[in-house]
Structures are given as structure tokens and as C-alpha cells.
Amino acid sequence: MNQPIFTNSKYAIVGAGLMGRLLAVALAQRGAQVDLFDKGDSAASGAAARIAAAMLAPLAESAITEDSVVRMGIHSLPRWKDLISALSKPVFFQQDGTLILWHRQDASEAERFSNHLEKNCRHNPQLTAPIKLNASDLAQIEPGVADRFMQALYLPNEGQLDNRQLLDALLHELITLKVNCHWNTAAEPEQLRKNGPYQSVIDCRGHGAKEAWLSTSNKLRGVRGEVVRLYAPEVKLRRPTRLIHPRYPIYIAPKENDIYVVGATEIESDDLSEMSLRSAMELLSAVYTVHSGFAEARILEMATQCRPTLKNNLPEIRIQKDKGLSDLIMVNGLYRHGFMISPAILDSSLEVLEFGQSNTALELGLSITSNLGTTNNHEASLCA
Ligand SMILES: Cc1cc2nc3c(=O)[nH]c(=O)nc-3n(C[C@H](O)[C@H](O)[C@H](O)COP(=O)(O)OP(=O)(O)OC[C@H]3O[C@@H](n4cnc5c(N)ncnc54)[C@H](O)[C@@H]3O)c2cc1C
């Protein structure tokens, strides 16, 4: 049961994608009055959160990210269970591991990947070591791919959720909790700080906050990602599966009702235009090499979004205090790990709002910067 610690507080949140919705619900559950603004509709059509695969894979991601992000991911897995169980609408959540596959010619790449993960497990005892599967283990764990692959790597503790069900369930909660939602309303946090009766204005605009980060040393950019959503009743994959490939690494995230999310490109660009033909061909050819049942799949959607990414590829909470204005809290840089780490960022943000600092952020290595209320805009890092 959440304590009503924010009664008599009023907050504005700009951006109702992943972080904005989570924060709005959490604050309203704790007694706050919340005004929530999004330039898009209530289905989060303009959010990266809507098209993401929503895999929760700290060990797999440890191959390409920093230990702090991995620790945020480990913190977040059990927190997702709590957060989802407190919602009144069901959200598909699964923790049956990640499967890593490769074709025979890519065995040396797979070996390197496996060694990398094992090294990360030795450094971080909270991670569970990957398990090498032979053909008969693979036939037991994931029979749908056993005719094409003779070995695999299994990362047992990883999970995924259904992002669209989550966004919808959070929307339902916003309505129940009487959060004042302003859809199709582009808002400017600095204006709300001046004119609004808010304790704090929280900027959760993701990629849309690019301008606001220009004045900081940690600039925000978009990293374009393209995904395909397939309906493939002939394919029976039980868990998120990644294909190691030197040029076309892909993942396949199986959702309920034979829906598969296949992704994703990773292109240094703010371009939000439709998927390119090259990306479509690469994703679709690669997915067909994993399971022949994809040949008869129906293409439901090809989608593009930009992952909100700070210069150092790490998330950050930035506090701006100025005399006569509401505090500004900027939460951004969730990059390709938003679902994996957002409960950790949520917990840290709530502590910042309550106490002005966060022990959770300190423990996990989440960066919180502040101008400390000075007029010379002096930046101080509150944690490593
Ligand atoms: C292809 C792809 C695959 C991904 N897969 C995964 C995955 O498997 N696992 C994982 O953990 N993460 C994944 N991610 C990352 C994850 O989706 C993001 O990190 C996360 O959505 C970022 O959350 P956010 O709330 O900061 O931004 P968003 O979810 O993008 O929300 C930002 C919101 O702000 C609104 N907004 C913008 N400007 C304004 C304005 N001026 N006024 C009002 N509203 C505004 C937008 O309309 C939007 O609704 C993926 C991302 C992509 C693109």
C-alpha cells in the first residue's frame, strides 16, 4: 500500500510515454495532484515506448552497456512484478529467460559474446551465468528452433512484458486516479514552471526534450530504431530470442496471441520517417532464418521511433532549481533500456521529489545532476 506522502503537492509532468505515465501514476497513488501533458494521443502513438520490444535483459545487455545500467536492470525486474500487480488491468509479464542463437558460420562471434557475458558475471555476482545448451537441451527448452540450431546460450533470469498492454493499463490507472490528462497538447516545461502552481515540473519528453538538453554538457540525441510486428501462428517461440550475426543481429520478442516483435535497427539519426526497404529486408530475411514458420507470417506493422539517448548513453536525472520558479526535474536518456531500467529510475525520481536526493540512485550508479539553486548554473554530480 502506498503512503499518501505527496498529499497537498501538485506536479506537472510533460510527456506521457513510459517514464511520464509511470511517474504520474506513482505520484497520484501517493496522494499528489498531477497534470499530465502529451503532444500525442492517449495510446502513446508518438512514444518510443509504444513500438519497443520491452525486453528486460540485463545480462544480454551487459555486452554493450555499463555496469550501472545492468544494476538498474537487476533492481527493476522484481519491481516490475510489484508495479504490474498494483494495476487493475492485466499486463503480460514473463521471466523465462533469453535464448541466444547463431548460425554455424558465426560460431566465433558467439564464442566472443559468451566469454564477454561470463566475464561480466564474474564481476557482478548478482548476474546468473549463461548456460550453454547442446542440441537435446535446446529441443527441451525451445523445441521450435531445434531443427535449425544445434546449440544455443540460455540466460535464465531475463524477462519481457507487453508494452502496449502496460501503456493501456497505466492509462486506465491515470483515469481512475483522476490525473488531469491533456492529450494532443504540446507543452513547454519552462512555461509551466513560470505560470503554474506546481511544486515541480517533471520533463519526461524523451527525444522531444532535445532542445532542453542543449545547454548541458550531456546533449540528447535520437537513435533511430525500426521494428516489424508480425502475426505468426505457425511459429512457437516461448521467450525472447536473439540471433547473433555480424551484420544483421536481430531479436524476436514473442507476445501473447502469436504476435512477434522483430527488431531492431540502431542508426545514429533523429529521422522518424518510415522504415527503409533495406532495414525491412534485413530484419525479415534474418527472422526467416530462425524459423521457417515466419514465411507465412502476416506483417501487422512496420514502425520507427528514436531512442532518447544522452551523449554518454546513460540515463540521468537533472534537477534545476531557480528562485521564483517551480523546480524542474528532467528525466531522460533511457536509450534502448527504458523498460529494463524504468522502475529503478521511478524509485530514484520519487526519492528526489520527497527528499531532494536518492539513495537508490547512489547505490545503482544512476547519475543525478543539479545546478544546486545557484545562479551561475554550476553543475554538481550527486553520485558517481
Ligand atoms: C525500436 C525500439 C525498441 C526498443 N526496445 C526496448 C526493449 O526491448 N527493452 C527496453 O528496455 N527498452 C527498449 N526500447 C527503449 C524504450 O522504448 C525507451 O527507452 C523508452 O520508451 C523511453 O521512455 P521515455 O518516457 O523517456 O520516452 P517515450 O516513451 O518516447 O515518451 C516520450 C513522450 O513525450 C511526448 N512528448 C514529446 N515532446 C512533447 C511535448 N513538447 N509536449 C508534450 N509531450 C511531448 C511524446 O509524445 C511521448 O509520448 C526500445 C526503443 C525503440 C525505439
Give a structural overview.
32% of the residues lie in helices and 24% in strands. It has 384 residues and is an alpha/beta fold. The strands form 3 sheets. It has an 8-stranded mixed β-sheet with strand order 9-2-1-10-18-17-19-20, with helices on both faces. Helix 4 crosses helix 10. The protein is globular and about 65 Å long. The protein binds flavin-adenine dinucleotide. Residues 14-20, 37-40, 44, 46-49, 51-55, 186-187, 204-208, 225, 227, 263-264, 305, 307-308, 332, 334-340 line the site of flavin-adenine dinucleotide.
Helix content: 25-40%
DSSP strand count: 20
Strand order of the largest sheet: 9-2-1-10-18-17-19-20
Overall pLDDT metric: 94
Bound molecules: flavin-adenine dinucleotide
Q: Tell me the structural class.
A: alpha/beta
Distance between the termini: 32 Å
Gross morphology is globular
- Main beta sheet: strand number and arrangement? 8 strands, mixed
Helix-strand blueprint:
Blueprint lengths: L9 E5 L3 H12 L3 E5 L10 H4 L3 E2 L1 H4 L5 H19 L7 E2 L3 E5 L4 H17 L7 E3 L1 H7 L10 E4 L3 E3 L1 H14 L3 E3 L6 H7 L4 E4 L16 E12 L9 E4 L5 E5 L4 E5 L3 E2 L8 H14 L7 E13 L5 E5 L6 E6 L5 H18 L3 H6 L2 E4 L9 E2 L3
Parallel strand pairs: 1-2, 1-10, 2-9, 5-12, 10-18, 17-19
Antiparallel strand pairs: 3-8, 4-8, 5-7, 6-7, 11-14, 11-16, 12-13, 13-14, 17-18, 19-20
Helix pairs in contact: 1-7, 1-10, 4-10
The site of flavin-adenine dinucleotide has 43 residues, from α1, α2, β11, β16 and α10.
